[in-house]
Amino acid sequence: MADDFHKPTQYSGDKFDTYEGGEDPAQIMRVAHDTAHALIDRARETDDPAVVDRLVAFTDAHGIDAIAELWARSSPRSLPGALWRIYLLRVVIRQDPDGTSYLFQRGTEVLATIDAAVAGASIPTGPEEITDLADQILRGLFRGDFGVALDRAAAFCRIEAAGCTSAADDAEATEPARATELTTRADRFALTADELTACARLYRSGSLE
């Protein structure tokens, strides 16, 4: 990847699939897949932990727009599509750790599944814990079991979706606009969870390209 990237850009929590890339779809897809595979290979071949640290924190220095230009238009069921979504989740968490952790905690209280255990966040989950979870998941893509990292990200999204839905129900009577915003966000989190779960299945079958 080149060194000349845009400065960090604020990216709102409900923008999961709206980034517009270049004009040549074939070239975009080729570059997306090549860079995604090169990134994973580099992370897994190095013994230098500083390299992985820099990859995890890449968007802190360069912003999400640099990655979006490479991967945002990729199929959601592809390696670059999976990387894009997990990097974007990390940005969403870091831009609003208080709100994200509140919705996550709310989700764990209303969701009767094992998703909290799969996600692996410390309980109770405050802003510091939710930020650490984002780093753990991304680091797991580079150094741990790739499929497990995808499962953890999907579980996080399902919990956030449940938290958004619960908070939207509370806001419906007094803050209808807020309720609508939360419902829309819940739908996007739920969709992203499905996409990441599909990527995990493809990875385990050797079909995630």
From TrEMBL:
Keywords from the named record: DNA-directed RNA polymerase, Transcription
UniProt-annotated stretches for the region Disordered: 1-20
Record flagged with keyword Transcription: yes
Keyword Transcription set for record: yes
Any one of the GO CC terms: DNA-directed RNA polymerase complex
Protein name, as recorded: DNA-directed RNA polymerase subunit beta
